[in-house]
Amino acid sequence: MIEFQHVHKTYRVAGREIPALNPTSLTIEDGQVFGLIGHSGAGKSTMLRLINRLEEPSGGTIIVDGEDVTAFNANQLRGFRQQVGMIFQHFNLLASKTVADNVALPLTLAGGLSRSEIDKRVTELLARVGLSDHAKKYPAQLSGGQKQRVGIARALSTNPKILLCDEATSALDPQTTASVLQLLAEINRELKLTIVLITHEMDVIRRVCDRVAVMDAGQIVEQGSVADVFLHPQHPTTKRFVQEDEQVDEGEQRDDFAHVPGRIVRLTFQGEATYAPLLGTVARETGVDYSILAGRIDRIKDVPYGQLTLAVTGGDMEAAFDRFKAADVHMEVLR
Amino acid sequence: MDALNFFANVDWAEIWLATVDTMVMLFGSLFFTVLLGLPLGVLLFLCGPRQMFEQKGVYALLSLVVNILRSLPFIILLIVMIPFTVLITGTSLGVAGAIPPLVVGATPFFARLVETALREVDRGIIEATQSMGATTRQIITSALLPEARPGIFAAITVTAITLVSYTAMAGVVGAGGLGDLAIRFGYQRFQTDVMVVTVVLLLVLVQVLQSVGDKLVVHFSRK
């Protein structure tokens, strides 16, 4: 478990104190994939680097598995860092070393393993990330996605309990992003590893995260399960992120629907409810008519969801709304 | 016949001796320059602005010493160093007398080049190595120096070539060498043939150094 207790951070730039993180408390449970989303400068990168103290906090405590990370001396900190893997946006692989030597680096630095034990571990790790054939290559000979896989193998080499991902997919194309995220989800599931990732893309959060915290101007403005935050965003920043992902503009939509008659409602289905034939049933029973104005059906991690915007006309509208509410469907009346 | 006459003044045994002297001075001083300059360069880098051990005072002091030594014309350094040279090698004359001033002249230059090469290493590499729990020594030996290796080889090449031109002045303390021959015979005695031979030999030396250096840089670039 990772706990932030009133942690804050200010930078001194040219004699002035610039706050990067306002006092923040946050708990990340073991085995979760926890996403921190925010625009650049929101403080998410600072938050991530405070966990392994690549950034020193200006105040507050960070507790990882019951131990106060902020109180570690240099030696303890090094031991702790060996238990925390980290991957980076620009991969940060050593260009002078082969793929195998890059993956072996954390183990050679930590010491304690023989050359043959290290070789065995490297072979295992490269097989896990699907790069067994590339052990002797240099990073410059790999594609972006392959480089990040090397980064992941390297981060996992010491069997860490926590994996920190610093915009790990931001430099990759959409297809490669999907495969790297899939690998991360797989690792989380199979190794029971806690993953903390930062990103500015809601899509990344939706695909792999269990919980999410939205950051804006050095603080967390909203947090919760990804489904809740994604489907029912409250804070303007969160709404903007969701809309960016959906590529819809609520204001524009409102104008488009201005001439549509009847009431406008938004229904959100989650899990099995997504597949239930609810709309037709309710329409038949209550005599309402509906047209679908906008909609999306997709998955949040492994859970299917649907969100439909309907214009409802005629029949017993109140009875229809009651039926929706009773059927495990979240309903918002927009107009 | 004319071609042979043209080289009438050239004493090939003397040329050979001078070549050996130049080589000994060059590689002897290059060895000590790298030995001293590499740690100095690393120190400059570490203490530099926004680096791991930012130390404004130490950096300013090192910088000043480096800059003073670099701004001193080598021929002056050669004379100024005489008492110190005697202290180290027991003589201020000949090849042995030339090596200490050559090292002192080239080390600050080389250290600066090493500092620059280290600065070229992506900061992300340092951060990644820190995140693995590396000690400072490990960061330097396992990440910084291997990553900067192409730059460091380029620095050694440039320094070697600079040393070749410095050795030409070492004749002042009687160190001999090709440059000394060129000055004493080629220039002062108007023996154009000696001048041509020595200059060609120096040119070949510089060419060889540059191409070997370039090969090493490419080999270690891995790009």
Helix fraction of chain A by DSSP (H/I, runs of at least 4): 25-40%
From the spread of the alpha carbons, the general shape of chain A counts as elongated
CATH level-1 class of the largest domain in chain A: Alpha Beta
**Helix tally of chain A?**
12
Of all protein chain pairs, which has the greatest interface, and how many residues does each chain bring to it?
A-B, 28 and 22 residues
What name is given to the CATH topology of chain B?
A: MetI-like fold
* The CATH topology of the largest domain in chain A: Rossmann fold
Instruction: Count the domains of chain A.
Output: 2
List its traits.
heterodimer, A: 335 residues, Rossmann fold, 6-stranded mixed β-sheet, 4-stranded antiparallel β-sheet, 12 helices, 14 strands, 30% strand, elongated, B: 223 residues, MetI-like fold, 10 helices, 80% helix
Brief write-up:
The complex is a heterodimer of chains A (335) and B (223). With 335 residues, chain A is of the alpha/beta class.
Please render the helix and strand layout as text.
The complex is a heterodimer of chains A (335) and B (223).
Chain A: E1 2-13, E2 16-28, E3 33-37, H1 44-51, E4 59-64, E5 67-68, H2 74-81, E6 84-88, H3 99-110, H4 115-128, H5 144-156, E7 162-166, H6 174-191, E8 194-199, H7 202-208, E9 211-216, E10 219-225, H8 226-231, H9 236-246, H10 250-256, E11 263-270, H11 278-286, E12 289-300, E13 303-313, H12 317-326, E14 330-333
Parallel strand pairs in A: 3-8, 3-9, 6-7, 7-8
Antiparallel strand pairs in A: 1-2, 1-4, 4-5, 9-10, 11-13, 11-14, 12-13
Helix pairs in contact in A: 3-4, 3-5, 4-5, 5-6, 11-12
Chain B: H1 2-6, H2 12-47, H3 56-71, H4 74-80, H5 82-89, H6 94-119, H7 123-131, H8 136-167, H9 178-187, H10 192-221
Helix pairs in contact in B: 2-6, 2-8, 2-9, 3-6, 5-6, 6-8, 7-8, 8-10, 9-10
